[in-house]
Amino acid sequence: MTRAGVAKAVDGVSFDLAAGEILGLVGESGSGKSVTGFSLLGLVDPPGRIVGGSIRFQGRELVGMPPAALRALRGRHLAMVFQDPQATLNPVLTIGAQMALAVQAHERASDRAALDRAAAVLARVGIPEAARRLSAYPHEFSGGMRQRVAIATALLHGPALIVADEPTTALDVSIQAQILAKMKALAAESGTALIWISHDLATVSSLADRVLVMYAGRIVESGPVGAVLRAPLHPYTRGLLDSLPAMATPGEKLRQIPGAAPSLLALPAGCAFAPRCPRADAACAAPPPEVAQGSRRAACHHPLEAAA
């Protein structure tokens, strides 16, 4: 709810996730990626709210779950890694104190046992001399190390699902690669499912098993990450790929999707992408049908492979 009216930040999004699977959630800023992740953990702040639908986790319905029961799930069975670890770590507490509190919030453990577990998980995410670094404060870590601490905190209880909201955006490329490799290995080792939210298709291509492409609060394409990024069905996905610098010919201007994403308060009738789509015609004034090709899905009147 806004002063100008109701904005549906996420509308009709539906997917499932298997144990150990890594799902990429991509799209431009404002497409609804982060709100989708926050909704799963019940972290949508007022005046935002979930007005309908169902979120089922291991057979339990999360929508409408009492706050105390949802808090018991968060951290222990469901965890989130946020984009900026400096904003989520307490600057006046040591890393060890913060991680010990996270352990003791969900189970009885002595301070020593909690710190030992924290040190072991820090070592798993690649922090050297982990036991010694427990006495350090967040400002004594680099950006990459702070993000590793945030990931380690999410892993403390071996959750079944971790939602990672653009956690490597502010890091340099070499640190990004290290964290991506570590997350992929940890998901494989522990069977933890991972939702990786990003606007970076290159990152998702190297990490995810499947990808969901979002636009204006809806999923416009989904499928195995390799197939979707090699030959997308939806013109929006094609536009995202064409916008990558790696796809450009040296010396030529970068291609971009014309126009801007629509306001969620005034979405066009029919296909929301139609005003920016080079393939749009009169048919796009109606809601797009779902096109299925094997395990792939797209919501489009004129999917690219169908035209080919």
TrEMBL record:
Domain ABC transporter: 1-241
UniProt keywords, alphabetically: ATP-binding, Cell membrane, Membrane, Nucleotide-binding, Transport
UniProt GO MF annotations: ATP binding
Listed InterPro entries: AAA+_ATPase, ABC_Ni/Peptide_Import, ABC_transporter-like_ATP-bd, ABC_transporter-like_CS, Oligopep_ABC_C, P-loop_NTPase
Main localization category: membrane
Short name of any one Pfam family annotated for the protein: oligo_HPY
Membrane-topology annotation of the record: Peripheral membrane protein
Compartments reported by the entry: Cell inner membrane
Organism domain of life: Bacteria
Family note: Belongs to the ABC transporter superfamily.
This protein's name: ABC transporter ATP-binding protein
